């Protein structure tokens, strides 16, 4: 005789989620028959789902009684997600403070697979000429302030390869973008010397930006930038922003690993001397 069941419940993804949710709420391991009845699909279908989940380390089967239960994988992922959310709660106030002080757009990146990606932002200006950026756009490393400070902290050969892979050498109509390795190398050297990246209408017309790296003892974690219409972000304004940007990157480095935010005054004391020297160099 065929299997009796209530009816097919959803597609394969929905069925898999149903199995996981039922096992998660169960007070004790469950038998295959019970799972099939709860979900309303044939035992053969549930068995295929369970086999796949066992292979992926999500479910375990007791060989003595053939009952199924979740492994600790979901609990561990849940703990990790809570940590990620907590880190976000630590990072966002730093972005918000810098945006409030500069009255401009502040953005945060991280490094993923030899690319920079946007992971946070804060807008400081609510009226007048406001720069609105697309947080889904690809970061061109050789044409952005964030990208330049990142590349400047990498070995030269690696930086050149990343730039070439990202399209260095291709025309970008209407923009003041670097187009050759010969132009890129001195720009990266200047960026290393300054300690911050600059971009003036290179990735986007009418927009300028300044960026600094966020570091820990192992290297670069990401970058942080302040961007604005080019007529608001000239050399003098950049010099004025540098101390706040440096303090923000130092605070972000501490928050990055989920540490409690440090007192901003203590960060200010440790970085004010550096920022003053940096400003004098720029002048």
From TrEMBL:
Positions of the IclR-ED domain: 73-258
UniProt keyword annotation of Transcription present: yes
UniProt keyword DNA repair, yes or no: no
Region (Disordered): 260-283
Domain of life: Bacteria
GO molecular-function term, one example from the UniProt record: DNA-binding transcription factor activity
Entry keyword set: DNA-binding, Transcription, Transcription regulation
Residue ranges crossing the lipid bilayer per the database entry: none
One Pfam family from the record: IclR_C
Domain HTH iclR-type: 10-72
Any Gene Ontology biological process: negative regulation of DNA-templated transcription
Name of this protein: IclR family transcriptional regulator
Organism of derivation: Microvirga aerophila
């Amino acid at each position: 005789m065929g299997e009796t069941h209530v009816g097919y419940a959803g597609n394969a993804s929905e069925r898999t989620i149903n199995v996981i949710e039922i096992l998660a709420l169960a007070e004790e391991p469950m038998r295959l028959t019970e799972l099939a009845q709860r979900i309303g699909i044939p035992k053969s279908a549930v068995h295929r789902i369970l086999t796949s989940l066992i292979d992926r380390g999500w479910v375990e089967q007791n060989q003595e009684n053939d009952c199924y239960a979740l492994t600790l994988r979901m609990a561990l992922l849940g703990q990790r997600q809570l940590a990620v959310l907590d880190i976000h709660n630590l990072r966002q106030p730093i972005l918000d403070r810098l945006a409030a002080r500069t009255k401009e757009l502040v953005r945060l990146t991280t490094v993923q697979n030899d690319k920079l990606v946007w992971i946070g932002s804060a807008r400081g200006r609510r009226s007048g000429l406001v720069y609105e950026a697309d947080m889904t756009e690809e970061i061109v490393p050789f044409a952005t302030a964030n990208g330049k400070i990142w590349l400047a902290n990498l070995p030269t050969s690696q930086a050149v390869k990343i730039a070439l892979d990202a399209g260095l050498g291709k025309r970008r109509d209407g923009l003041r973008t670097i187009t050759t390795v010969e132009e890129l190398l001195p720009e990266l050297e200047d960026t290393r010397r300054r300690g911050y990246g600059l971009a003036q209408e290179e990735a986007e017309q009418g927009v300028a930006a300044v960026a600094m790296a966020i570091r820990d003892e192992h290297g670069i974690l990401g970058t942080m930038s302040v961007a604005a219409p080019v007529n608001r972000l000239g050399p003098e304004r950049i010099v004025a922003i540098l101390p706040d940007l440096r303090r923000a990157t130092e605070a972000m480095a501490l928050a990055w690993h989920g540490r409690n935010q440090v007192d901003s005054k203590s960060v200010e004391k440790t970085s004010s001397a550096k920022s003053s020297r940096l400003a004098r160099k720029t002048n």
